[in-house]
Write a structure and sequence with these properties.
The protein has 182 residues and is an alpha+beta fold. It is 22% helix and 31% strand. It has a 5-stranded mixed beta sheet, with no helix packed on it. Strands 2-10-9-8-6 form a 5-stranded antiparallel beta sheet, with no helix packed on it. The radius of gyration is 24 Å and the shape is elongated.
């Protein structure tokens, strides 16, 4: 109903400004006419749909982990990592090896940046889940034997005074089964 009222009033405004411009060609009715077209266009303009995938081999991601079952896909084909996340707090988050593309998940303790990982096989990947905190790095191995490293940059939790549930991380995918990110 609200959509219909906006369209009707914008249409009437458009007609009014067009009529005014026909009888008094000047700057004011021309601007009003253009503004009316803009109002009508915004009601039909496609809305931005949030994406839950990034096919690049490295990048920075921000997404709402409360949606899409906490899933976000990085990479593609044999470099695909379907990450799975769930709420822990506003400074930590759970990550899982549940998706079929993920073989194992580990936490690179004591490592400050992804480029400091020289052998991804050194980290304990024996558990189904890990709970990294902001600044920490998660190492993932996919079903094709390739590795990815994800550094947690920011976690928002709407149950702890944030406006939304949101995870921001950077990642690097290492092709050909390489384990050195340096």
């Amino acid at each position: 109903m609200q959509h219909k009222i906006v369209n009707i009033s914008a249409g009437l405004t458009l007609i009014g400004f067009a009529t005014w411009f026909c009888f008094e060609p000047s700057f004011e009715p021309a601007i009003g006419f253009i503004g009316s077209i803009g109002t009508i266009a915004t009601t039909y303009w496609p809305k931005r749909k949030e994406s839950y995938a990034n096919q690049r081999k490295s990048g920075r991601v921000t997404f709402d982990y409360g949606n899409n079952n906490g899933r976000y896909v990085i990479g593609e084909n044999e470099l695909k990592f379907e990450t799975a996340w769930s709420k822990a707090s506003n400074v930590s988050i759970h990550v899982y090896n549940d998706p079929p593309s993920i073989d194992s998940v580990g936490l690179a303790k004591g490592v400050a940046s992804i480029s400091q990982i020289t052998d991804a096989t050194l980290y304990d990947m024996s558990s189904r889940s890990r709970t990294p905190q902001e600044g920490e790095i998660v190492v993932l191995k996919n079903s094709f034997g390739n590795y990815a490293a994800i550094q947690i940059l920011d976690i928002k939790d709407q149950t702890r005074s944030d406006s939304c549930d949101e995870l921001t991380f950077t990642y690097v995918i290492n092709p050909h089964g390489y384990t050195n990110f340096a």
